[in-house]
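ARCHIVE CARD
Drawer: 12
Card no.: 0347
Subject: one protein chain, sequence and derived structure
Cross-reference: see card 0346
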Amino acid sequence: MWAETFGDVIVVWIVDFHHVSSRLAECANVVAEGTGARKLFHRWKGMLYGGKLKKLLGELIRRAEEFSPRPEAASDLPEESPGRILWEHALYVERYRKHMKCDEYRANGWPIASGHVEAFAKHVGGRMKAASKRWKPVEGSEAMVNLPADQASQDGRWQRRWPPDPVPLEKLGST
């Protein structure tokens, strides 16, 4: 499906910074309280933002090991136990760390959060569902959704979809 959708376009999968941050906040709240939890969270969030994933992961695993040995899967541990919460998030960071290179992505000018995509989807959804809007089955609505997506795309889809701008009348000369 990936190849069919994107073809030979190089696509980088970036895990949302805020999504991972919320996992780090949950971990910090398990191992500390109050101000200590906030400080720990901001420290870990800074590591994520700065691309220090090896150090971050090391700390998460060390903290998780304080509560239980490494499981095969976090679901092997009792529900809502501190060990399960910590291992669930540590294993997540471990599994997807190659998609969390926030420092590299920022250096390339790439977004590290998905808010802009979610806002675009909300905008298109609102336009599609506005008062008095009705769409024929799937074909009509799909075509309308593709228009703003193609226009926002930076890979030339919009230009390939539409013919070039007409020549202005003043350039045609008088006839």
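Annotation on reverse: The first helix runs from residue 2 to 6. The radius of gyration is 24 Å.
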